[in-house]
Specification:
Length: 268
């Protein structure tokens, strides 16, 4: 593999930002192309991509305070090198700091050599004084604090505070940042949930039924990605969080109703 896992993560995150692509298909393609599916490097790549996307607002607040210019005007690849490195420095204790900085400089040298010194300076600056960087105070500037610390758009946080108050908004944003377990929705036109559970267990998956959705199954563990199984290609289920599954039950549409999904994505 010519590129390191962290370099691959930079490439994916840059495509997501510049081309407005979905991360999931980009990640799946890289995992397949570099034969990383199911191995430690593949898990690290997945962790870095989704971790940075989930906490980007938090990371950018810190980086903007470390960079003397306008952080938003930096080259997107450089920003993503910094985001990935800061994510590891702040949220991972397994990797030595010097190794994170060294890898970041190597990636910078390969994509934009003139910025390698800047990368090195910002990351070392974080190691020296990162603990002193503060976020807006929750008491005096609730919306800005929640938006920056918990990585949510400011306009959305302001809307939520107006509707349900500061504490409920804070609790919602904290919950949003928790990593949800992989969950699937049974295609009940083809199979029942109990039958699908048995099929998954026969293929070596440790699964359990969801608490609220009558069609959901949580994937606790599996040796291969669920999307690589024959039951996936048979269309026996779709990847879908339990909360999203519950929407149709709450809506409870009648036969021949027309339903407009105003928040539709590409799906799993």
């Amino acid at each position: 593999m010519n590129k390191s896992v962290r370099h691959l993560a930079v490439d994916i995150l840059t495509q997501v930002e510049l081309n407005h692509d979905f991360a999931s298909p980009l990640l799946d393609k890289v995992l397949d192309d570099y034969q990383l599916t199911g191995n430690p490097d593949g898990r690290l790549l997945t962790h870095l991509v989704y971790g940075v996307l989930r906490l980007r607002g938090h990371l950018d607040w810190i980086l903007a305070n470390l960079y003397r210019g306008n952080f938003e005007n930096l080259n997107e690849q450089i920003k993503n090198i910094l985001r990935i490195s800061l994510f590891q420095l702040k949220f991972s204790e397994r990797i030595p700091s010097f190794a994170v900085v060294d890898e970041a400089v190597k990636i910078a040298n390969s994509v934009n050599p003139e910025k390698s010194g800047l990368i090195n300076a910002i990351l070392r600056n974080f190691l020296r004084r990162g603990s002193n960087i503060s976020f807006p105070p929750l008491k005096n500037n609730s919306a800005q604090h929640i938006a920056s610390f918990y990585s949510h758009p400011l306009w959305l946080v302001e809307e939520w505070i107006a509707i349900m108050g500061k504490q409920n908004t804070l609790a919602l944003c904290v919950s949003n940042n928790k990593i949800a377990p992989p969950t699937i929705r049974t295609n009940t036109l083809k199979i029942s949930r109990n039958e699908l559970v048995r099929e998954l267990e026969l293929q070596g998956f440790d699964v359990s039924p969801t608490n609220y959705s009558p069609h959901g199954i949580i994937i606790n563990h599996g040796d291969i990605p669920i999307q690589k199984t024959n039951i996936y290609f048979k269309g026996l289920f779709r990847l879908q969080d339990e909360g999203a599954q519950c929407v149709s039950f709450l809506l409870n549409p009648s036969m021949n109703d027309s339903v407009l999904d105003a928040c539709a994505g590409s799906g799993g």
